[in-house]
Amino acid sequence: MGFTLNFTSLKNFVFLYLSLRLFTEGVEEFLIQPTAWYYMKYLGESDLFLGLTLAAYSAGALLFAPFVGVLEVKFQAAKMITVFSAFVRFFGNLLYSIPINGYFPFFGRLICGLGAATEGVLFGVVAKGTTNKNRAKAFLYLEGLYSLGTIFGPTLGSVLTFNVDIYGWKINAGNSPGIILIFIWLTLLLFALFLPSDLAENSGINERLVIEEKNDHDPAFSKSIVDYSHNGSSPSAMVFAETSDKVTAVVEEDSEDDIRLSKSVAEPGCRPSSMVFCLYYLICLSLFVYMVISFYVPLLAKYHLGLGLSYVKLIYVNSSLFVSVLFFATSLFLEKISENSFLFVTIFAQVIPISITFYFGLSWNNTMSVNESYLLVCSMLFLSAQFLNTPIASSVLSKITPVKSASFYQSLTYTAVHLGMCLSRLAAGATFGKMAMIYTSAVLAFFWLFGILWLGYEYRNFARLVTNTEV
């Protein structure tokens, strides 16, 4: 047997492919975005059409992510979905790079969004191939690669810019990113063809699940061990194990014809559905807050603080470097504190950029000093921490939902992500003004307060369920 990463039991080639895929996702998003404005102007399209084109990507992912998740759970067709996704991304970027009129890049981004809807399936594969203890590390690793791709994307776009005419196909700075992505996704498509039929085939072979729970009143604790074999279809057996009044594991039997998803591990009085929706809400909220406020930052820097483009870039560079360090540091933090506590802290931190935005709205007509630019830096640093919420919440989600339907629940995670992105792009562009920004900050504060109260209400339930499912 070859080398196996310590937080996954997936085959090395599968894990390498997932790593390249998530890195490419980040590259594509930020390779297209900086040049889309130039491309639309070259094609004679309006700023509104530019916004629709950029939003089409998220709209495609938002609409089809749940469908893809259901498809994978029903047919266990992760490889087929992965291959199809790579082909769709290849075809979508091919359409994007055809400079006939604006509808080609528009439908190109929409089709690419359909391919992006499969990201949840990939995270579902990771959920099946990791233990509860190491799942957060795996998710942070993959999200870290995505963030690294967002840093690498603009750099790649600056270096590889073409200006040629191939039999009437004009390639310039606007559609050069599409050309680059055609070759990248063609390569990933060829790699996907060689993936095993079951991407998570190593994740359930002769596993021994040891579930321990300590009694609050007795220093002794009970221990139940469940053996099961995984033949590529579904676990042959699962077991109900109880310690006093607490359920420590849930087990059902599966048949080849009728696969019944195991129930979430639950304790008396818990409402798993409420907890699941809470996590989806927090993921959507994190993206919404980040996208709205980060849209304001360059505009405030230019029009109210008089900062040049180079200073604005420095703000974003510092933000990107900070989030890269955070991804590494978080894996260390999680060895000392629980995922629930970490999630509560990062969600609570949203109040800082919201408050800073509210301050700039109140000071709209006042003369601002350059020193107040540090408030923008502070705002972006705290916003960067919101990137951690998706992998952490996804990890918690995987521990309170059935493993067999992991792809479905992780697909809904990306539905929440792209819902936040779509709503934020609609809201941010129409609210850059004194009163509009004040009202937006108040609305963000209301959504934040609702989220923090909901998380606080469910906090104990999260802590109990996650503790009971640690392996």
UniProtKB/TrEMBL annotation:
Naturally occurring in which organism (per UniProt): Paramuricea clavata (Red gorgonian)
Membrane topology classification: Multi-pass membrane protein
Entry's transmembrane regions: none
One annotated GO molecular function: transmembrane transporter activity
Pfam family, one: MFS_1
UniProt keyword annotation of tRNA processing present: no
Protein's name in the database: Major facilitator superfamily domain-containing 8-like
Subcellular location: Membrane
Taxon lineage: Eukaryota, Metazoa, Cnidaria, Anthozoa, Octocorallia
GO cellular component, one term: membrane
InterPro entries on file: MFS, MFS_dom, MFS_Domain-Containing_Protein, MFS_trans_sf, Tet-R_TetA/multi-R_MdtG-like
